[in-house]
Fold this protein.
Amino acid sequence: MADVARVSEVRPQNASRMLIAAVQEGLVMHGSRYGTYRLTTKFLNAQVSARSSTPRIQQTVQQLHDDTGLAIAYHEPGWRPGTGMYLELIELLCPNPEHYEMAAQQHADLQHTAAGRAALSFLSGHVACDAEGRRLCLDTRLQESITSTRVAACRTAIGQALATPVLRGDAVIAILTASGPHALFQDPLVVQEHAVLLRRAATRTVCAPVHAAGGGTARRASVSQHTA
């Protein structure tokens, strides 16, 4: 509660009333420790990204989609009181509305998405922890596989996804994900090619200059129509 009052710049008693109302609305729930709270999926699903995409990100997402035929998502990791580690969706190109939920990679448990697994494997314990400061960890063998290949994978009922970190030096600045129906992941050689293209795209996002800054708005409008 003290964190909420400080961040919101309101009095503790007002923060308390806000939290009670949020619990009643189903936006937050009580944490395992007294005086702590967690954001619910109802709140997370209603959030709109406050961070802006850039022409470089838009260009990377568009080109990777053109190269693979898969839905492409770009997330930026962060941590905040009441939530812990989260992945904020910055850019998404998903031509098939049926695959939107999988492509957006917004599962509340980061261990259940390729994007979340990639983030947990490469981010430090200062960020990769829950709302109460407990370290979020993957199975040791799974994490070793992800860090050695720089690609995380995840399978759902409707499809599969691959994710890789966007690195600036040793710092993870984003997670890039490619996902699609099972039919596009049946050939191991094709999956390997998707992984190579994904890693190259992540490198281009950081290193390559932007050759065409225009068109980003039009593409985002098109995506909105597909995913509305």
Summary: The longest strand covers residues 171-181.
